[in-house]
Amino acid sequence: MTQPLFFKKYFRKNEKRCLQRRNYIVKYIKAFNLDSRTGIDLPGEATGIMHDSNNMTEVDLATSSFGQTIQITTLQTAVNYCAVANGGYLVQPYVVKEIKSNDGSYSKTTESKVLKQIMSKTTSDDILSALEMYNDNYIRFPIDSITALTAIPIEKNKRNGRKQALHLKLARSNKAILKEAGELKSDGRPSKRNIVIEWKKLNPGATINNCIIETGLSRSTVYKYWNEV
Fold first, then answer.
1. What is the CATH number of the domain that holds 19?
2. What are the phi and psi torsion angles at 76 (to 5°)?
3. 229 Cβ contact partners less than 8 Å away, ≥ 6 residues apart
4. What is the DSSP letter of 59?
5. Are 16 and 70 in contact (CB under 8 A)?
6. Is there a contact between 70 and 49 (Cβ–Cβ < 8 Å)?
7. Distance between CA 187 and CA 202 in Å, rounded?
8. Would you say residue 6 has pLDDT above 70?
9. What is the total count of domains within the chain?
10. In 3-state terms, what secondary structure has residue 20?
């Protein structure tokens, strides 16, 4: 089954849901001003390339959700990144801050112009906090510091002086004993192999694409175990 044909069948089956999602995508494109120029004080500014919301096909809807078949300019990207840093406020960019004549008879100053708020400050702060995790200083953040900042107590693992290999050996032996006694009900998350095999047994005649969509597994994972049943 080709991808376009798959999208068309999915769209027909879930037309109402797809139309709602189209409205969401269009709503946020307009909210972030991605369908219009930034208004920078330079001539010839281009704008991105967007679909006509009234003529979006099922394929357009699917590909737009992850940024394909649409284009935005580098300046539009920068303006929206700045909005995250500005507490969620979208500000019109400018190049020239001030113009003055030599004799002082003319003076013009450009003031920052807030266009609108595209996200709450809470959301903006959450994004900035998440971005801070890319800082190398946070990779090995001490447990005591995390507890102090979040007020969430984190109990440290205690090996009682044992090496990691011995500690894990003891933990696994305890797990085996509990499982034999019937006190351990699960071995953790089911393996991806078992997920594919069980899904295929419950859905005879279904396609690989159906399995990928319904299980959420990657295409390579499903293909890896598909022929084991």
1. 3.40.710.10
2. -60, -40
3. 197, 200, 201
4. H
5. no
6. yes
7. 22
8. no
9. 3
10. helix
